[in-house]
Structure formats: C-alpha cells, structure tokens
Fold:
Amino acid sequence: MPRSTTISYVLAVTATVAVLHFHLLPAAFAGLAVYVLTLKLARHLPRNMNRVAHTVALGVVVLCVITGLISVCTAVWSFVGSSQGVGALLAMVMETLDSLRRTLPASVAELLPTTIEGLRQQMAEMVGDHVQKISIAGMEGLKVFAHILLGMVVGGMAAVHHFKEHDQVPPFVAALRSRLRALTTAFDKVVFAQVKISALNTTLTAVYLLIALPLCGVRLPMATVLVLLTFAVGLLPVVGNLVSNTVIVVISLGVSLGVGAASLLFLVVIHKAEYFMNARIVGHEVQATAWELLSAMLLMEAVFGLVGLVAAPVVYAWLKAEVKEQGFI
Structure:
C-alpha cells in the first residue's frame, strides 16, 4: 500500500473518532447530505454549459439544497413546538397517565403518582432554581445549529469543488478523495435504507391507526400526528421506534385498556425484530450481514453512546467498503 494511501486512512479514521468524540455528528451528516444531494441534482444540469455557467448553476443548486434542508428542519422544529404537534402529544400522555392512576389496579397505580408528580416537581424546580442551566442548554442548541449550518456550507463547497477539472493531483490528494468518495457512497446507501425502514414502519403504523382501529369502531386521538411522529423519529435507527411505540401505547391506554393491550400486541408483533429488520435492510444496501451491523451498532453505542449508535451503520459500511477495495475480503 502506498504511503500516501496509508496516511489518508490514518487521517480519515482519526477524523471519524474526533467527530464522534466531540459531538460533531450533526454537522458531519448535514455536510454529507448537502454534498450527496448536490451531486445527485447536478447530474441533471446540461452538459454543454461552459465552465463559468456550470459553476454558477452548481452554486444555485447548493443554495437550493441548503435552503430546502433548513426549511425541513424548521418545519420539524415548528411541528415539535406547535400546540397541535408533539407538545399536544406530551400533554395527552400526561393526562393519560393521570387517568390511569384512577383506573388501574391499586398495586399498579401506586407506582404512577410518585412518577408523575415527581416529574412535575423536578420540572418546576429546574425552571425555578436552574435558570442558568436552561440558558446554557439554549446556548448549546445555538452552537449545534451553527455547527450544522457550517457543515452544510462545507458540504456545498466540497460539491462545487468536486466538479472542477483536475488533470494532475498529488497522490495524497487523490487518496483523500478516494476516502471521501467511499464515505459519501456509504452515507448515501445507509440513509436511503433508513428512509425505507422508516417508510415501512410508518405504513404499518398508519394501517393500524387509521384503518384497522376505525374499522373496529375505535378512533385514537391525534392518530395523524402519531403517524407523522413515527416517520420522523423512525429516521433514527432503533431508538426512534422505541419513542413512537411508547407514545402510541400510552395514548391507546387513554382510550381503554383493551385498545392499549391491542396496540402493545401490534407493536410487539410488528417491531419486535426492529434491530434485525434495520440491520437486514441496511445490510442489503451495503452488502453486510445482520450480525455485522448489529455488532457494530452495539460496539459503537457502548463506546460513543447514542451518537455512536446513529453513526454505526454509516461508519461500518464505509470501513467495509474500504477493506473490500484493498482486497482483504
């Protein structure tokens, strides 16, 4: 293996560890998303454009991609904070838990008052006594947003640079480009697979909430919002479905214990093998078996936490592609 290639691998692995350790994954994913989407859209540009016009067109594409992604993020954030969105769902969950305190058997209901009131007391104390911490959290949110915006700009600049003519480049630069090409390919495949997983879960959930339950004479409150929530959080591997499933079961319990039991049974049957379904679909895209991806997800979650769990499919797909390219497997 040439020395330049070896150094490029060392730098790539070091950069990956640094991104995960310093919590820069949102910025990295934002940059990769802009880069991949720009390359996909740029394929439709006319081939007979001169160099200046092509660069200007690429700049317009980059601006459209960044604007589109920011608009989607803003819409999601507005949905989370709206009175008809996740905020209303959380309020309904709290009301349902309060009502369960009066309907469940005494042995079970004894556990609920402490949990609910303790949570409310904790929130009140946090608002009253830890205003400074809330301000710090707000500043952290602004910092993450700034990182994401910078990541998008870097991704757009890299996409424009990708189309520039390079007749001769040093071997080290060529090796770095090869690492970037393998990473973006892995990111493209994994994200597309995750969207398919979320779409499948959302379709099954929509059939249950919007068709099966109404046919049985049951109309779950905010069913449409629950379907949208299922798709949104389903973009997060494994953890997303746990969130949506918990909310659906609690809201169902607010209707009746029978509906709650039916929802729990449905979600257990459909999503019991979520880990394996995730690994199987993603594995098909990146040519990896289920046990490989599961092992990578468990290992990176243990080392880096939730960030490692989210990044594991992309990182493993990239590493395996690199190993294949070198002919080791």
Notes: The chain has 14 helices and no strands. Confidence is low (pLDDT under 50) at residues 113-117, 126-137.
